[in-house]
Specification:
Blueprint (H helix, E strand, L loop, with lengths): L1 H37 L2 E15 L6 E2 L1 E13 L6 E18 L3 E2 L2 E2 L3 E18 L5 E18 L11 E14 L5 E11 L5 E3 L4 E5 L5 E3 L3 E3 L1 E13 L1
Antiparallel strand pairs: 1-3, 1-15, 2-4, 3-4, 4-7, 5-6, 7-8, 8-9, 9-10, 10-15, 11-14, 12-13
Keywords: Signal
Protein name: Outer membrane protein beta-barrel domain-containing protein
Organism: Saprospira grandis (strain Lewin)
Length: 241
């Protein structure tokens, strides 16, 4: 009888031990999952979206050029600390820039837009703020430096002498990273402004533009120092590693 009581007590203690071990394992797994969400790693992704491109030309009425952009990126993230996470991003992409004419005609037809097809290399610093369910998501701000090369262009009325193919610029952006649970995938929405530091076009004064005004008079150029300024709205999909 006594052995039965001892055996029953031992079984109860054993069940209690298993229950404690199971609870500890579950808590440990939960902590590891949370650590994974806030640990460092890499993003590999593709982005694309719409562009509003502007240029400031002296004495010419210009409209913004509606264009597009696309590319790929890799991002290295450090470990989260105090609800914040630092990362470094590198991107290679195609960005269409330029401007369109307003109220200008040649032979009764509207003048085509000035377009510049640029290959862009971006290196950027990002500050991420943990948010969302279980702090999976990231609200971020970005500051980057761009180096670009103009692959092709259409410059109306000024020939090719004034085009600068190699460019430098900066990028300022803000966005939101949505990490999809249990998938290793994420989505990104971003709004940015990117002014150039170097000129896309330089044209000396008195250069024949090859265009006429509405009265048929030839239009001669003033000195033109043309910088690109673009506004972009982008969406991206990325893989988390």
């Amino acid at each position: 009888m006594r052995r039965s009581i001892i055996g029953l007590a031992f079984a109860q203690y054993l069940l209690l031990l298993f229950a404690l071990l199971g609870s500890s394992s579950a808590l440990l797994a939960q902590e590891e999952e949370e650590d994974d969400e806030q640990s460092g790693g890499f993003y590999y992704g593709l982005y694309g979206g719409g562009t509003v491109a502007t240029q400031n030309w002296n004495n010419f009425q210009r409209n913004a050029l509606l264009a597009y952009h696309a590319g790929l990126f890799v991002e290295s993230l450090g470990a989260a600390e105090n609800g914040q996470q630092t990362s470094y991003l590198f991107a290679l992409g195609y960005h269409k820039k330029g401007s369109s004419f307003r109220n200008m005609f040649v032979g009764g037809s509207s003048v085509p837009a000035n377009e510049f097809h640029n290959l862009s290399l971006l290196g950027a610093f990002k500050k991420n703020y943990l948010t969302g369910p279980e702090e999976r998501d990231r609200l971020y701000f970005l500051l980057g430096l761009r180096a670009e090369y103009t692959l092709d262009y259409q410059l109306v009325g000024f020939g090719v002498e004034g085009v600068n193919r190699a460019l430098l610029g900066v990028k300022l952006a803000g966005g939101y990273d949505l990490r999809l649970p249990d998938s290793g995938l994420g989505l990104r929405l971003e709004a940015s402004i990117s002014p150039d530091i170097t000129r896309q076009v330089f044209v000396p004064a008195g250069y024949s533009t090859g265009t006429v005004d509405q009265n048929g008079n030839a239009i001669m150029s003033q000195e033109q120092k043309v910088y690109n300024l673009i506004f972009e709205l982008s969406a991206a999909v990325f893989i988390m590693q």
